[in-house]
Every structure is written in C-alpha cells, then in structure tokens.
Amino acid sequence: LRDSLLVVLGPGWQKTSYSNQGNASQTNTLFFRASLFSLRGQSVVSSALRDVIAYRLAYRDTITQPHDTVTLTVIVCHLKAGQTSSDMSDRAAEAQTIAAFLNSQPPGNI
User: Cβ(35)–Cβ(12) under 8 Å?
Assistant: First the structure.
C-alpha cells in the first residue's frame, strides 16, 4: 500500500521507513517531496502503546537562502482513540511521552 501511494502521488515523492517495534496494528510513515525536503534522521520514541516516530527534515531553500538550512522535526503517531476514561488516560500518557522526548532534545535540535 505504501508503495502504491507513491504511484498515486507521482514523481518526486519519497517515503520514510516505517517502524513497528511495538508490534501494533497501526504503523506510521511520512511522505514528502524530495525537491523540498531531505530526510536528516528518524527516531522511534519509546511508547507503551504504539510507535511514535520523530522525523528530522531539512528544507531545501536554494533560492532565498542558499547557505542556510532550515530544519524541522515532524512527529508522527496514532494516539489511542475512544471516549472511555482508560482511552483518555492512554492518550494522555502518549502525549506526555512525546512532550518528554521533545523536552529532552538539545536546544536548537527541534
């Protein structure tokens, strides 16, 4: 399915590798235009329910800032759905895991 999406999107798109360390039924990946971004890194954030993936991208701005690189971190995850108190608690725990990961990064790295 992931490779089929690249055909639908057309040329110039890339996908990242996906992770399923938690052996969950949902997995994540990121699609991006290679002419606009390059993948600098990918980290799996340890989580109790599902993989949370942090992708580090560099923006390819060759027109206005040829010697400056803008980087960004994209967090991709599938939080627990549902309306029960257990579901809400699981979602809150996942969000806290993501916040802890972001807060643990060195200044200028997010």
Answer: yes
Q: What is the per-residue pLDDT across 30-64, written as a single tens digit (0 to 9) for each?
A: 899 988 899 999 988 877 777 889 999 988 876 66
Residue 44: closest CA among 108, 97, 106, 93: 97
Cα distances (angstroms) measured from residue 70 to each of 29, 32, 64, 100, 105:
21, 15, 12, 23, 17
Q: Which amino acid belongs to residue 75?
A: I
Rounded Cα–Cα distance for residues 38 and 71 (Å): 9
Which stretches of 1-110 are DSSP H helices?
A: 2-9, 85-104
The reported pTM is 0.78
Query: What is the b/e burial string over 81-101, where b = at least 16 CB atoms within 10 angstroms of the residue's CB?
Result: eeeeeeeeebeeebeebbeeb
pLDDT value of residue 39:
93
